[in-house]
């Protein structure tokens, strides 16, 4: 059987209720080998904990990437921010095995294909300087290495960092292992050949690496300075009448920002108030990668989420605290017909990340 048919049969048997699924990777290309596995991305409705699993199915090696729609989007966003296109490519370039959503699988392929085609952008600022410094420092180590074992390890590190810098300067995606070479061959096949030829010759390897450094702005060692965290900054006071409503909102709620990157210059913290009107419920939502802590000031708010597929309600009172983990779909309710509920919220990001959802399954 061909890989797509095998993968489709696997999903039908192991995940009969999957929203949609893809198979991707080398197994669908001319690079397929006797050890190529089936890279299968499966999206389930309301999966609480995504997971990766390696297994054999009817003699085929399989790598499973099992997600909810929320977790898949979060993992893809995280990887692309780190210039890693692996899972995004499995979905965008792979074959759709099943789609029970009326087209969301193909919509996702289109969206990811556009993001991949746009590339990660140029490496700039402190990250670019750090990359130049790192490779320059390795070349100094290589020039002074006298231990054959140490030199071997340094040479291999120079090969990898030279390839990564070339991809970064070219605004291309990175890769690991064989995918680093594949990305480089697609971007600059001559450089890939040069690195393969020079990997055992320190002098030639240095010449190749210096050529890539010139593309990035040249060697950088003497004078390089990396700023650490700031200390002894002044305190900031945000008065109660200075709270801002210029933050993401959900239906049924009014959020007011107090501490944020804009109001206080915070880097890893957002804090503010949320008001829930009488006899009102918010839309279902989550807060992305943010951890959220809630202190109830007044009223009797409820916090609703799914546990083992069933709705669970936390009945809170003034003085209570509630913790909301990252990416957990939930909503706030105020059953009181007359009084609004007021809570103070702190999140572990400077932004008030709010992703509104159609339901609690996420």
UniProtKB/TrEMBL annotation:
<dbReference type="InterPro" id="IPR013096">
    <property type="entry name" value="Cupin_2"/>
</dbReference>
<dbReference type="InterPro" id="IPR014710">
    <property type="entry name" value="RmlC-like_jellyroll"/>
</dbReference>
<dbReference type="InterPro" id="IPR043519">
    <property type="entry name" value="NT_sf"/>
</dbReference>
<dbReference type="InterPro" id="IPR011051">
    <property type="entry name" value="RmlC_Cupin_sf"/>
</dbReference>
<dbReference type="InterPro" id="IPR052535">
    <property type="entry name" value="Bacilysin_H2HPP_isomerase"/>
</dbReference>
<feature type="domain" description="Cupin type-2">
    <location>
        <begin position="275"/>
        <end position="344"/>
    </location>
</feature>
<dbReference type="Pfam" id="PF07883">
    <property type="entry name" value="Cupin_2"/>
</dbReference>
<protein>
    <submittedName>
        <fullName>Cupin domain-containing protein</fullName>
    </submittedName>
</protein>
């Amino acid at each position: 059987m061909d890989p797509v048919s095998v993968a489709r049969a696997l999903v039908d048997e192991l995940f009969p209720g999957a929203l949609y699924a893809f198979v991707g990777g080398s197994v669908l290309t001319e690079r397929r080998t006797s050890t190529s596995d089936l890279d299968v991305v499966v999206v389930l409705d309301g999966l609480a904990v995504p997971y990766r699993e390696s297994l054999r199915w009817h003699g085929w090696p399989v790598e499973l990437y099992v997600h909810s729609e929320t977790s898949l989007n979060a993992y893809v966003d995280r990887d692309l921010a780190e210039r890693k296109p692996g899972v995004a490519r499995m979905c965008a370039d792979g074959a759709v095995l099943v789609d029970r959503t009326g087209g969301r699988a193909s919509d996702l392929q289109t969206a990811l294909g556009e993001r991949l085609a746009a590339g990660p952008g140029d490496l700039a600022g402190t990250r670019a300087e750090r990359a130049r410094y790192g490779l320059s420092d390795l070349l100094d180590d290589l020039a002074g290495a006298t231990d054959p074992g140490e030199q071997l390890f340094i040479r291999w590190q120079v090969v990898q960092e030279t390839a990564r810098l070339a991809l970064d300067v070219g605004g291309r995606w990175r890769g690991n292992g064989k995918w680093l070479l594949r990305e480089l061959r697609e971007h600059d096949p001559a450089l890939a050949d040069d690195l393969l030829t020079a990997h055992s010759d320190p002098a030639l390897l240095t010449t190749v690496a210096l050529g890539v450094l010139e593309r990035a702005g040249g060697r950088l060692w003497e004078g390089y300075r990396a700023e650490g965290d700031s200390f002894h900054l002044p305190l900031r006071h945000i008065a109660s009448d200075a709270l801002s409503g210029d933050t993401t909102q959900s239906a049924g709620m009014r959020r007011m920002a107090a501490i944020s990157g804009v109001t206080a210059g915070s880097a890893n913290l957002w804090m503010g108030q949320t008001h829930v009107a009488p006899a009102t419920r918010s839309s279902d939502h989550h807060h992305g990668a943010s951890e959220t802590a809630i202190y109830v000031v007044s009223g009797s708010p409820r916090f609703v989420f799914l546990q083992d597929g069933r709705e669970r309600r936390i009945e809170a009172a003034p003085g209570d605290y509630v913790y909301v983990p990252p990416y957990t779909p939930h909503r706030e309710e105020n059953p009181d017909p007359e009084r609004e509920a007021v809570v103070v919220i702190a999140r572990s990001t400077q932004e008030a990340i709010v992703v509104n959802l159609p339901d609690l399954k996420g």
